[in-house]
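Researcher: Can you fold this with S-adenosylmethionine in place?
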Amino acid sequence: MENSRILITCAKGITPFLKEELLQQGFPVLSEGVAGIATEGTFDDTLRLNLLLRTGHRVLYFLREFTAHDAEDLYRGVSQIPWEKHIAEDGYVCVTSSVDDPSIRDSRYANVKCKDAIVDRIKEKCGQRPDSGPDQDKTVVNLYWKDGVCSLYLDTSGEPLSRRGYRKIPMGAPMQETLAAAVIIATRWKGNSHFVNPMCGSGTLAIEAALAALNRPPGLLRDNFGFMHLKGFKEAFWNDLRTRARKEAKKSLECRIIATDIKKEAVEAARKNAATAGVEHLIEFSSCDYSETTIPEGEGIVILNPEYGERMGKIQELEGVYRSIGDFFKQKCKGLKGYLFTGNLDLAKKVGLRAKRRIPFFNGGIECRLLEYELYEGSRKNKNRQIT
Ligand SMILES: C[S@@+](CC[C@H](N)C(=O)[O-])C[C@H]1O[C@@H](n2cnc3c(N)ncnc32)[C@H](O)[C@@H]1O
């Protein structure tokens, strides 16, 4: 297939980090939205993107655009796309959509019309209608319909890329894998200094840190993507990409990754998740109060994602926790960079340190911040003791 527009979706607020990843991989950025970036490339490039991207959710390969003012226009436009080239007549197709058009009140209706046009066309050309339904683990077609213009894409990811497959035990209030990857990019940690993650929960931050430090692409962890179910899937090319990525990945770390949690069952879950991700041997897990976490000599970052009272915990109890995180940073983490990821800025003020950077994120619809604290050694320490 020829060069085409490729749209990569991501969670709200992640675009700057997805952009950084795309530019690093040599892809142009054609346009940016709040939850996605348009780039361009060949169909083969979509395989690379699915393998490599840490912060994207879906890699959508653009097929065709047409104007549509009602469901009949949609049916006609979709029928003109040669679906028989992409989807097997004995296959399975799922249609997902994002519809913002006055003629359609229920986007499910647009989905059904679009799906009908696809399967009817394949029946007409090949004599058999593929199955269809809601499962996204086979062929997925995406419809974007806004202001009278319909864009049709092949969703080459199928299941969103945030589902890496390693988090078998999520525990309470886990961070989405793609969000954790973006938070790590935001810290500018490059894998050559220590990564300390007290309050690790299910271990998402520590696991994503280990994968990033090894230069091991997250796509190596998955064995199912949408593109695999399309006609003409180049299996040998895909296997080559994976083999090359494995060879280029490091086998060991130049730093220590330490993950702790007060709950023994969280540490056990994190350990199991890390084992599924193939990085358990690279992370030092233990169960303790966050303030007892070993802080190694040398440079590094300490990153905490405490509860913030929206989904777990109670605000009043948490005020004391946030206050003592400030003391922990000042007393035990001198010379490192401290990070706090929270969805409650009032609680963050209790830390009592001046944040050097405040990076906005969203977690499950809640506006959050990643706060960065420079934890100076010695006399510079006092400069920090200011209320945010
Ligand atoms: C919001 S969750 C962290 C989620 C994590 N980022 C993930 O992706 O799974 C907060 C974690 O802090 C832990 N925690 C709460 N108080 C703690 C304390 N005093 N010391 C250590 N861990 C604590 C909880 O057990 C919980 O696992």
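Model: Folded with S-adenosylmethionine in place. The two ends are 54 Å apart (CA to CA).
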